[in-house]
Amino acid sequence: MKFNYIKIFSIVGVIFISLNSCKTQLEPAIEYAIDANRLKTIVDFERVLNGAYETMKGVSTPTAPLEYRNNNTGYYRFGYHAGADIGTDNMIETSASLGNNRSLAQWYFNANTPAVERAWIAPYQVINHANVVLENIGNLVETAPGQRDIIKGQALALRALAHFDLMRYFAPSYDRNSSDLGVVIKTKSEANFPPRSTVKECYDFVYKDLTDAEELLKGIEISKINPGTRKSKIDIHGVRAIRARVSLYAKDWADAKDYADKVITQSNISLGSVDSTSIGVNVTPSAIQNPKSYQSVWFNDLNTSTEVIFALPYIQGQGNPGVFPNDGVNGYTVSSDWRSLFGTIPTNDVRYNVSYNPSASPAANSYLKFSGRFNGTGIARDGITDVKVLRMSEMHLIRAEANFNLGNEADARTDIRLLRTNRIKSYKPLLDNVADILENIKLERRKELVGEGHRWFDARRYNLGFDRGAAPGQGDCPSTAPNCSIQAGDYRFVYPIPLGEIKANSAMSGQQNPGW
Fold first, then answer.
1. Cβ atoms of 451 and 339 closer than 8 Å
2. For the whole prediction, is pTM greater than 0.90?
């Protein structure tokens, strides 16, 4: 007998309940969440866990209910990736966008905006997958030592990352012990409708999950989680990288430094290099095919063990991550403000070359990052490429910022210089005094992480606003824009809780974010 489904529409309470079930076979799609007795073998649990990863990258199976499939751009396919850059001074809209996501790019979104709803619901879908695993992990019949720890550790890490990502958009404060409302903590896959927890309670929960995940995974061989060169699952280094990022936001500088340092020194993952003349800073076939190069990270992710700590792999037919509405064009591209960061000879920096093609029109092939893989003759420009969630360069930048705030200025300078050595042609570290350390960290974060979903949240951390020009149609301010600037601390930097959630969940009454 096939299963029937009932949709419970509070976004944090979305689950799918079966009625009259009489089958024990684990079927595809969402049916894993129905009957705990069906989850027993390692294959069963891996399917559920894989569902969490697929949901994180915005790919759901066609047998899932339509409402579920329509949220596929909410997470790292767009919402927490390029979607967190298009409203910043890093990127501008092109004519190829067709107006898609303009409300985010021009800051006139509200509690009814579909992109905001997707940013809320998508992480909770991942959390639901993780909770199914964690609720039933005791039923797993191991056929090899460590299987339970591998599955449980990843589920805890995914649940922690999803809750933290929700905090980045929807929590009005990043302070570690803030009593402001954070997000709804979900520990069960059942349809319950709790209120928002405080920011402190959310941090406590995220840290607990990460601590438990680290304990479970620290004795597991990496090859048992990521057997090849692609880091498509969260292993121990991924857990520690997540924790370094969380502690950066929480301003727990000692913890951020400690965990970034663990990843840097223990993972055997290197920075993509340009310091060899055989690699260089240009986007050439030889550079792309060199597994140690920075170019290979972006255009040859099928065969590189450089730079990437955790990435979500895409294949043909799964859609285009980033800002590519159609093959060969881009709805958004890097701004002139971002390009100006590189000075008079921008092409000496591999990050400029990897991100921008100055000879192309803005809407057609000007944005290179995430544009596609090298196909033997050139970059495919099909938008099919892995989304890099955690990279080694971010760990160096986290460690630099943590050391700066701990008073270890020499160590902070060392990380900045190391990153520049691996990005800039003929860079002379001994001639770079890095006088204003924090401003240099901010600069390197903009150059390095453009299009990867960090700038919107960095603006909140650093209390920055964005100014795109004097008037619409001038500078980086599009002619369609209602205004050209957003001030530091503006209420719109914190997304509103979606109206559908407020209406469906009575516990959320009176819990909307300030200003909305």
1. no
2. yes
